[in-house]
Structures are given as structure tokens and as C-alpha cells.
Specification:
186 residues, mainly alpha, rod-shaped
């Protein structure tokens, strides 16, 4: 690593024993005293002024800090895979969701379960509207026989669908949290 030709001069004063050691070291490296000192200065300054390669390494390291690598015991890895599969998620995505939920004190639901709960809420809204319509019809003194029977059949159908969706979502949720807790014969 040789420095480009410099046009600045730098003079220092050294005790005689330091000068003798400097001459001896320069000779051992096959350099002049000036070249030896230039290399010492270059090496001392180099860490302070990052090179383009060092800057690229810093950028890469910063990007790498965005990723987190976790080592798991094989049996924990298996449990993670089972639970993630039960929730229909990739293992890394499931682990990231768990970490986020833990750190932020959240109770996340996977998309499929969230969709089921949203459908349940929509069906419950339908039930509420139909009950309101039946109540208005009866209040106005309408003949509640055939009309009420039709609305009640529709109400029971919607309620059954909502109940089934809700039960399925709860079963899937419970199954996913229980995955991996089965006892195994070892």
C-alpha cells in the first residue's frame, strides 16, 4: 500500500533512541525512514476515513440488522412448524407475528380467522335487521302469521350459518394454539 506522491512536508523531532529504532524498523521492512513513516500515518488515518468499500459494508450491515436470525432447538422448531401449519402461515411469518404480538401486547388473528369473524359480524347485522323488520311489522298490526314465518326461517338460516362460521373459527384458533402440545412417545 503505497501513498501517492505527497507535496507536503512534515517535520518531527525525536529522541536519538527513537530515531535509531525507526531507522532499524525501516531497514527491516526494506523502506526508507520517510516511506516507513508514511505507511504508519496511512495506517493510523485509514480507520478514521472509511473507504467506499467500508461504506458499502456499513450499508450492508445496516440492512442485515433488519433481519433477525434465531436458533431454535429441533423440537421447538418442529412445534413452531406445526403451529404455523395449523394457522396456515409460514413458520417465519408466524414467529414474527408472535414476537410482534408479545412486544406490543396484541392479540392477532390470522387473515382466515379474521375474515370468519368479520363474516360473523355481517351475519349478525343481517339478523339484527330482520328482527327489527319483524318488530316493526308486528307493531303496525300486520298479520304476523305467514310473513313472520318466512322471516323466522330466514333468521334461523342466517343464525345457523353465523353459528357454524363462528364455531369453525374458534375450533381453528384452539387447534392452532394446541398444535405441538400433543404428548409424544419418545
Amino acid at each position: 500500500m503505497s501513498s501517492p506522491r505527497a507535496d507536503q512536508r512534515f517535520t518531527i523531532r525525536l529522541p536519538a533512541e527513537h530515531r535509531a529504532r525507526l531507522q532499524s524498523l525501516a531497514h527491516d521492512y526494506g523502506l526508507t525512514e520517510s516511506a516507513f513513516l508514511r505507511r504508519l500515518v496511512d495506517r493510523a488515518i485509514e480507520p478514521l476515513a472509511p473507504s467506499p468499500a467500508a461504506h458499502a459494508n456499513c450499508v450492508r450491515d445496516a440492512a442485515r440488522a433488519e433481519r433477525l436470525y434465531v436458533r431454535l432447538y429441533p423440537d421447538d422448531r418442529q412445534l413452531l412448524a406445526e403451529r404455523a401449519l395449523a394457522r396456515g402461515m409460514a413458520s417465519a411469518t408466524y414467529l414474527a407475528a408472535l414476537a410482534r404480538a408479545h412486544l406490543r401486547q396484541l392479540s392477532p388473528l390470522p387473515k382466515a380467522e379474521l375474515l370468519a369473524f368479520n363474516q360473523y359480524a355481517a351475519y349478525m347485522g343481517d339478523i339484527n335487521r330482520h328482527l327489527h323488520r319483524i318488530a316493526l311489522f308486528v307493531e303496525k298490526g300486520g298479520d304476523a302469521t305467514e310473513r313472520v314465518r318466512q322471516d323466522m326461517k330466514l333468521f334461523m338460516k342466517v343464525a345457523k350459518i353465523a353459528q357454524d362460521l363462528f364455531k369453525d373459527a374458534l375450533k381453528a384458533n384452539m387447534k392452532s394454539w394446541e398444535a405441538g402440545f400433543e404428548t409424544r412417545d419418545e
